[in-house]
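Hi team, as promised in this morning's meeting, here are the two structures we talked about. I've kept the exact order from the run log so nobody has to guess. The first one is mostly here for context; it's the second one we should focus on when we meet again. Sequence first, then the predicted structure tokens.
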Amino acid sequence: MGLIPNVIKESARGWQTVRIDDVLLQKRAVFLTEEVNAQSSIDLLKQFMYLEQEDSEKEIVFCINSPGGEVGAGLAVYDYLRLMKSPVRTVCIGTAASMGSILFLAGDKREMLPHSRIMIHDPAFSGGSYAGKKPNEIEEVLKDLRYTQETLCNILAERTGQPLETIYEKTKKDTYFSAEEAIEFGLATGIVTIPEALQPTEGGNE
């Protein structure tokens, strides 16, 4: 992870150096700009929990630029976002791919920058070589993979309004959507610029 820039702010105690992430969090903006894994998911959950406790009526803006990552870690964040009382608006600020696209779908208001993209596909094997594995062991892995595929495709179908058969067809390979294509498919609900993306909207999750 790169260095986190600081900003200088004036307070009652004078001028202070503050992490820009903290400034953005005060504005209820949360960023995912890395892979989805155990650590990044915990970091996200802590921020969302804090913001909901601060004010469950105010909107949270979740900005995503992620190649995806671990399904289990991502679904933990997705489920929490869907259960939150706070309205959540997701904004794709680059590419929301794989598990990143599922997290993008957690917002009822789902917006994209003009040149951002969404990518969806089926889950893949992870965890190393299967050389030396017995048939029943491989069958268990395949069973789990099929379950994961079904789970993710059901989320895509529910959130986009597309038939499940269409989702299964689209996720057979890496399928990319421009902002306009994502809106047409039901992945996104609008296109915004950066200043608009960070402005609170009326109505939250309506």
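And here is the second protein, the one for discussion:
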Amino acid sequence: MESGPVVTCVLEESTRRRLFDERMLGALRALAGEVTVLADFTGADDVLARTEVLVTGWGTPLVDAAVVDRMPRLRAVLHSAGTVRGIVDDVVHERGILVSTQAEANAIPVAEFTLAVVLLANKGVLVPATTPYPGYDETRQGAGVGSHGTVAGVGNYGKRVGVVGASRTGRRVVEALRRHDLEVVVYDPYLSPAAADLLGVAPLGLDELVATSDVVTVHAPATPETYHQLDARRLATLRDGAVLVNTSRGSLVDTAALEAELARRADDGRGLTVVLDVTEPDPLPPTSPLLSDPRVLVTPHVAGSKGTELRRLAQGVVDELARLVSGVPLAHRVDHATLARSA
């Protein structure tokens, strides 16, 4: 029987332990002729010279021309995380080396998190975090349905949710939201009418989406084109009582403009709930008003894969290696032509 490819995993030890435990390493070894784990590319010239498949992840040093030159037999890079930006240099694609990513797998927990946030925010239970739920005292004292008048705008039925970016995560969010009685609209300049029809959503311009949605959830990639996409002008048009969610990249929301908008709404009484899993800067300084504002929930990058969800990423790498060994096309190959505008 022909031996499998020589596989080298270049991962920080803490990352390796979280993704590839002994069971997952065993799954790699079952497919490979040899599996070596390195923390970086320092030394190990003999191993790199034999390497045919490189496994990367969070914290892996840049795979640039100098690194690729040391791996003359390299034919595939299997990335165990989302974006390959900052990990895989353009030269890898240019030399015809296959690149695969687990961005699709990582989109699953982000979409789950977003769905939970949207549904809970529409029910009014996320913020303000320091005060009882509206109508709590009346309900506790037996007012029952009579207290519902205090939360007349609360609920999910018929609410419009605007999804900014039909990325992998954005599409999964759309699919999840459409299972509920919500109106889902999408802004993405690269989404064709046919693709929007397949998603079952109405495409809107960004200005209209922001101004008319009850919830605006951000899933576009960080590019020069999307920098501060939600700026002072657009933030000012958010509806009274709107919810803004960002699980994508902090740079898409102008932090200073958001702080100013929250301050204005505190003065004029218009409502705004904000959920940020990513920020700019990241982390926020301890003095940031966003950290003390009861209308704002800041979470520390918990939307993406954490804990047990990391095993899904590792399994995805194993599955891609199995396809490579079997001569089947990779399921999650990175398209270099669209990389500049994707997450």
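Starting points for discussion:
Confidence is low (pLDDT under 50) at residues 143-149.
The radius of gyration is 23 Å.
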